[in-house]
């Protein structure tokens, strides 16, 4: 494929924005990347090939999209802002392998649209510079969409990236780390300074790379219940597991006996804090609570 001039240089971005009289909408998390090297690094981290089916959220004026398109894989981009559709028709015209859909990603049936758009079979890879006001909902929407996602290479505010990739025993570790790491292996790839964007956001950003686990990290009997137990253990971070569990499930004798039996059965000290438990321990605990019934 012919290499076209990068969209994301500061001067070309400025030119495109001017040509279309585009004004940024803060409410849509519109911070565009204007550093071609960073975009190249994101695409390289995603490790794309022509066999891939690539899903992007929020293409903006196509800064990252063109780097995805250059892999020769099939690209499907969801953009909520109608004003950007005509810009993308223009900037993406050299790339027939890109399809832009004007939809809110959170309302879109991503699985069905992917089946309609992607002609060829192939691994599904999500790559995006996410709108920061809805980072977590988007991640959860995609993880629970029923799509068989092979990997996700996504940019977000650094603080959220730290929480997603956190390990037990750290301040950043919580129910979000577990919700994501239950499905995927999570690694922080690299940090991006605020100066790489126009307009500049208030915080630094980070790219994380998530890859599908070949084996589930833990076999849970009931996923909803597993997530309920996990969330309840972090309700008040400074409290012990016992305090959080009894606050959530009840303090009556029957409930306490049920909780005590399971904690003992799986060898977890009730005086520990939720943040010290691994995903496996949460899995064992929720399975035991499920089997022992109240
Ligand atoms: N990919 C571009 C870049 O890297 O320069 C733009 C990234 S910008 C951080 C986020 C983009 O997501 C914007 O284009 C914004 O309009 C779009 N967006 C915001 N909310 C969205 C939603 N709910 N569904 C789809 N796109 C959304």
Which helices and strands occur, and which strands form pairs?
Elements: H1 10-19, E1 32-33, H2 36-46, E2 53-57, H3 65-69, E3 74-78, H4 83-91, E4 98-101, H5 110-117, E5 124-129, H6 135-143, E6 149-157, H7 158-165, H8 175-181, E7 184-192, E8 197-198, E9 205-212, H9 223-233, H10 241-249, H11 253-266, H12 279-292
Parallel strand pairs: 2-3, 2-5, 3-4, 5-6
Antiparallel strand pairs: 1-8, 6-9, 7-9
Helix pairs in contact: 9-12, 11-12
Question: Which key terms come to mind for this protein?
Answer:
2 domains; 294 residues; Helicase, Ruva Protein, domain 3; alpha/beta; binds S-adenosylmethionine; 9 strands
CATH class of the largest domain reads: Alpha Beta
Q: What is the molecular shape?
A: elongated
Report the C-alpha radius of gyration, rounded: 22 Å
Helix content: 25-40%
**What structural category characterises the helix and strand content?**
alpha/beta
Strand order of the largest sheet: 4-3-2-5-6-9-7
The assigned CATH architecture of the largest domain is 3-Layer(aba) Sandwich
Q: What is the assigned CATH homologous superfamily of the largest domain?
A: Vaccinia Virus protein VP39
N-end to C-end Cα span: 63 Å
Strand/helix succession: HEHEHEHEHEHEHHEEEHHHH
Total E-strand runs: 9
Could you tell me the strand content as a percent range? 15-25%
Number of domains: 2
CATH topology of the largest domain: Rossmann fold
- Please count the helical segments: 12
Mean pLDDT: 96
What does the main sheet amount to? 7 strands, mixed
Ligand kinds: S-adenosylmethionine
pLDDT under 50 segments (min length 5)? none
